[in-house]
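Can't paste images in this forum, so I'm doing it all in text. The chain is below; anyone willing to post the predicted C-alpha cells underneath?
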Amino acid sequence: VEDGAGNLPQRNQSNARLEDSDEVPESLTRSRIRKLVETTFGAVENKYAARLDMCGIDGNAEDASDRQRLKTGLAAKLPTVAETGAPEGALLIGCRNHTFGGSLRLHWVSGEAGPLSVAHEEQLRDFGAGPLRYFSPCAARVNRVLGQRQEECDAGLEAIQHLSGLTFEAKRSRLQGMADDRANHRALGEHDARWRIEVLALPTSLVEAAGVHADRIIEVVVGSGEWWEAGDLLELFMNAKGMPRVLSLMRGAWRLAPPQDLRKPSDWSGPTLRIDSEADSAVTVLDLAAGGQVGIQASRGSSISKEEAEWLRELGLPSAAEDSARLSRSCHAVDNASFYKSAVQKLIRFRPTSCVLGDGSEVSARAALVFCFIRLVHSPGAFVPNIQRFVTGVESAAKRLAVIAVEDADPRPHGEALERLLAAALLAQRSGSLGSRWFPCRKVIREWLDLALLLFDSTSILRYRGTPLKDRHRKWNIGDAPLARCAALLHDVRSFASDEAMFQEAAAGGLREASSSSQPAVMPFPEHAIDQHTTGIGPCVVFLLPAQTATAGTPAQPFANVLQRLFHECTGVNPRRDRIDDFESRRYTMDVRSAQRMWLVLHGQGGRVPRNVLSVETREYTIDNGFLAGMVGSIDVGKVRGVSMVVTIDPCNLEVLVPTPKPVVRGGNEDDFYDGLNNEELLAEARVRATQMLHSGIPLQAIASTQLPNSELYGCALRLRGRQYEIRKQGDADSWIPWEDARRYRKEVQVLGLPADMRLPSATESHDGAGGAPGGSCPGVEQRLPLSLALRLDPETVGEVTGCWELLALLAKETSVAACRRVLTYVSHFRPSFRMNLPARDGGTLQTEDNYCVSFHDAAAFQFLVRASALAPAALVRDPKRPFQFTVSDVMALRRLRAIVLDRVRGSPCNTRQQWPSVGDRLKRELMPHQAEAVRRLLAAPTPHAFLHIKVGLGKTLIVLTWLQQRGLQDLEYVLYTMPQSAFDSVLFELRAMKFPVDIVVGKKTPSVEDKAWATEDGCVAVFGAGTWRPRPARVTVVEHDSLRVAGIREHLLEMAPTAAVLFDEAHKCLYSSTQRTSTALEIARLAATAVAFTGTPILNTNGGRLLTPWMELVVPFAINPRNLTVATNAMVSYHVDTAVRCRETVVEADVAGAAGAYHKALYQDRNLAKALEMCYLGCTRSIVVETRKRLDVGVMVVARHEKHQIELAAALAKIPGARVVAMMRTRPADAGFANVAVRPALHLTGETQQDPEAPPEGWNIAVVRAAQCEGYTLVKLQAMVTSVYPTNQATRDQLRGRINRLGQSSREVEYVTVVAGVLKNIHGNHERARVFSQCLHSKKVNADAVDKRLLTILAGSPPTLDRGRGAGAGQPSAGRQTAAAGDSLGVREAGTGKGGRKKARPPPAPAVAPAEATEPAAKRRRMTDR
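Text version of the structure:
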C-alpha cells in the first residue's frame, strides 16, 4: 500500500472535487461503498474494528483529519526493523509478500570489526532488558516516518519493548541515536560478520519456489541450527541448484515479533488446556477460528539434541545403542520430516514384530517407531503443498499421532490424550508464526511416546463410512465430549478434509469396529514407508513399478489408479481389518518392494557397481553455427541517441546483426522503445557499434563451459574479419582460427564394460520389438539390463559401452512408441540437465513453478532413460544427488540419442496412398513484401521448427499457409492446425481459399448443431466429435486449443505428429507450464515433422522469457539462459506495423477513503488479498467514470473487470450528459439502469458512416467491453482507453490496447488511462515490467503506407471470395463478399461474429466496394480495418 519511502498515496484532487457532484451517479457514492463494506465484510467487521481501536481510530470518521489518521494508523502500527532497529537475540518475522511466514533470530558473536561495520553497533545499551547490542535502523526512514506521522507512529512504536512507556520525543531521540546512514535496503547483519542470523522458519513463497528441493534447503538452513553470516546465507541460496530465488534479508522486509499473549495461570479465567501438569507454566492465550479464545498451558523443553538411543533405553527397549545406530544408517538417504511422518504411521498401522533393514539385520519394530518419532519431533519441518504452509516437526508429530489414532486404531479410549496432542500442535504452529517456537519438555514427549506404543499394540480399528465433511466450522466448547473437542481443534490446526471428516465421524459415534490380533512378522524398513504420502518426490515411486502392474487414470490424474492400488494393496494394509496371509510373497507386493528399494538407491542408499574402462576412442563432432550466436549472447552497445540498446547475432544467419532496445524498467519510456524498434538511423548506428566491437574482439562467455559441446571454446575471443568469424583460444596471443574450422572438434570417449556376469545382446541378434525374439529365445536389452542394476552403475564414470548406439536402437525398438514420444519431450533441448515431470500424491501433476504435466508414459520413459544412461553415459547420466534428474554429459551425444528415438517414433517414411490435392490461393492474392519475406525466412530456417511473431492484422495465417504450400506436402501425411475458437471464422476462410480440405474436431463426444454448421455439402469441410473422429490423411485437422488434452483426441494427435506439419495459432495460449494444454502442445511440437508457432503477443507476464524458453529451444541449437535469451527471441520471424500513432500513458490513483480504506489496509496486512482487491475495485470504478467523462470528446473504450462490472459501469456511464454508450454483450441484462445503453454482440467502430441503423447519428462515444473480450473487434474511432488493473496476462493486455491502436486509427495519438488504488499499484508495476519485455522483442517494421498501397490494389480489384456453411460448393465464389479477402489476408476477423467468433447462421452479404470509394486514403484505411 505504501510507496518505497513509506508514504501513503495522496488523494486525487479531481476526485475530491467531483466526489459530491450531482453528476456522479448515486450508485458510486461513498454511502454505497460503506454499505458494501458492511454487507460484504460483516464477518470480519469486529476483528478489524478492534484493530482500528488499538490505533485510536474512529472507523466511521468523516472529517479530513480523522480520515487521514484512518489511512495512516494501521500502516504505523507495525513498523519494520528499518524504523525500529533490533536488539541481539530479537525474534523477527517477515512482513512483506516475499518474507511472509519466515522468522529469524538475530545474534551477536565476538570477533573483529569489518571495514564497513557500523561503529555504534558495538556499544552495549541497557534499555531495561539488560545490556544488549542493537542492529541499527535507517536514519532516512526514521526521520521521514517519524517526522511526517508523529501521532500515528507513536501508537505503533509503543508495542516495541525498548520504546514502550517513552514520550514520542524520547522515542524519536533514541531511534535517531541508534540509526545509521546506510540504505534502507541494508540486509540484516550486513557489513559486520559479528551479526549472525539463525533461521527459524523460511518464508512461504521461498519454500514454494524451492519445490522438490524444499526439504533439502530446510534441512541445511533451518535444521542445522547454524548461526549464519548474512553474506554466507545469501551466497548459499544463490548457488543452491534448483533455487529460483534467494532469502531476502532487507531490514525493511522484517519486523520485531510482537510479544505473545503469555499470562500467569492466576491472570487467566477462560478455558484452559494443559499439555503437561506443571502448575506454574505460563498460559498462552490463542484465538480460535470459530470464535472465542483458549488458554494453553505448557512448559518449554530444549531441542538441542535428538537422543534416540537414550529414549530407547528409557523405554526399556533392548540393544538401544546398536538399534539406534543401525536405524540411523538405514535412514540416512531419507532423513527428512516427511519420511519420518510416513514411517510413524506405517509402523503403527502395520504393527510388525520386527523391521528388516537394508543390510539384512532386524530391529524391534517398537524401537523403529520410537526412533522415527523422536526424529520427527526434532526435525526442522517441511512445507506441505496441500495446505500451503510450513509445518514444524513438533506440530507435525503431534498432529500426525492424533490422526493415526483415529485412522489406524481405536481413538475412543484416548480422547483427552488426543486433545492434548492437538493443543500442542496448535501451540507449536502459532508460536512459530510469532518467531518463538515452542518445544515440548521431556515429560510431554514421554507421554506422546507412550501413546504411540499403545496405539501400536492396539488390536481394534473403527470402520468409517466416508461421509463428506460437514459442520466444518465447529466451535470448540469445553463442555463437549473429548473427540468432539478434538474435531474442533483439528479444524484450527488445519489438515486434509478426509482427516477432519474422520474426526467428525468418530465424535458422532455409531461406527462399527473391526478387531484382529494378527501381526506380521517383519516389515522392510525403510521401504514400506515410501509411497505417495512421502511429501515431495515420494509419488515418483510409480516410475519404478513394472508396466504390467499399472493402469492409466484420467489425463488430469494419470497415476491415480497406480497410487490407489499401491496404497490399498500394500502400504495402506492394516492387519486389524485386512488379511495379511503371505503378504510379502504376493506378486504385487514383491514388485512394490523392488520399486521402493530402487527409490532408495536413487536417494543414495546402497553401494555403486563400478564400471571398467576398456579403452579410449576419438569421436568427431561439428557444432551448429547457431551455437556461436548463443555463446556471444547480447552485445551491450550502450546508449544510442539516448536509447539503451543491445545487439545480437542472428542464430539463423550469422551475417545478420539484430539490434533491439534493452529491456530496462527504470529510466525507460515509451519513446525510447518506439525509437529502438522504428528509428532506422538509430538501428543502423547500433549495428555499426556492434560491428566495431566484433572487429576488436569479444569473449565467448554467454554459455557456461559445462553447457558447451567443446568446453575449450568458453572464454575464447571472437572477432569479425570481413564476412568471416575467427576464434582465438585462451593462451594463444596471435593464433586466430576460422570459425568453420573451430566448430569441428575431436573428443576422447572412454569405452566402458559391464559387470562380468552380464552379457548384452549383440546388434546382430534378432528381436521382435517386444522385449525379445519369438519364443523368448533371445532376451532383449530390458531383460538383460535390469533397472535395478542400471540404477546402481557408477554415474560418475562417463563413456560408452561397446556398441551402445546399436543397443540403444534395440532398446528403443523394445520400448513402446508412446513411451518413446515421452522420451523425446525430455531430450529435445540443449540444456545441461533435465528432470522428470513430478506427480503429486493424487496421481496428477505436482504444482511447482517449473513442473509440466505428467503422463502415464513417463514411467516407461524414465526407465528407458535410466538404461540409456547405463549404455551411453557420454550422452546423459543419472544425477547422483538429485533423484529423477539427469545431467547431460555431451549435447552432441544427446542429439545422437534423440535421433535414434525419433527414428523409432516416426517409423518408415510417409507413404500414404491418399494424395494431397493441388493447393494454392484461388483468390489470386499477391503477398505484401513483409509476407513474402516471412515465407522466405520460414523456408530457409535451419531447423524444422519456427516461431512467427507478427502483430495483429499482418496476415499470419496467410503467411503460414503459403509457406506450407511452397515447402510442399509430399513428405507429410497430415496437417494439424490448432487455435482458439475465436479464430475459427477467419482461419477456415483462409483454408478454403487455399483449397485445403478440412476436418474440424470438437472436444465433445458428438458435435452440436452449431458445430455441424461449419460443414459443407461437398465434404471440403467435415465436422467430427471426439468419440467418432479418426485421422484422415491428406486433410488439415483443425482442433481448438482446449481440445488438445481431451481423451480420444490427444492420443490420435500424438500418433499423427511424426508425419505432420503442426501449426499453433495464437501460441501465447500454450505457454503456461502447469496446464495440460501447454504440455500436450509442446509434446506434439517436439514430435512433429515440422511445426510453426505464431502469435502477435508472445509475452504473458514478467516471467515471459521463462515461459517462452521451451518453445525457443525447438528453434535454436544452443542452451538458452538469461544471458542469451534475447538471441533466441531474435530468431523469431517477427514483424510489426509502424502506425505512426504515439501512445500516451496516464496512471490515475483512485481514492479508497473512509471505512473502506481502513478495511483495505487491514485486509492487506492480514494477507487477505482477494478481499483487499475488492475494496480497491470499489474506488477504481468511481474513478473510471470520472476519467471517462473527461474524454467524451475523443471517444473512450472502457474496460470492465467482468460481466457484472460491465453492467455496473455501463449503467453509470449512461447517466453522464452527452454520453452515447454501447456495451459488447450477447444479451441485454435486466438492469433498470441499462435502458439508455445499446447492446451489440460485436463492435466495429470506424471513422466511416455508421452502418448500424439503431446507432445515434453522431455514433457511439463510449464502448464498454470486458477484459476477456480482447479479440475480434475494432474500435479505431475511439482515441482513449480507460481501464484498471485486472488479473490478465500481457497478451490479453496487448490485444486490448490493439483495439484502438491499429491500422485505421486516424488520430496521431491515443491515450491509455490506468486507474489504480492500494495493492493494485504493486500489481500494475508487475504488468509494466512484462510490457517492457514485450516491447523489446525484436520485430521488423512494416510501414503502414505500404500496407495501404497494397490494400488499394486489393480493394479496387474486388477479387472473389468464399462463403462457408451448407450450400457453398468448393470453388464457388459468393457475391457480396468482395472485401473479405482483403481483411482476411491481413488476419483480421470478420465482423458480426458472436461468442467465441462463431456464427449460428450465415451472415448477410456485405455491400460491394466500388473502385471510386477506394480512392480516398482515410476511408480506405477505415474500411480495411472494419473488415
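The chain has 48 helices and 49 strands. The longest strand covers residues 612-622.
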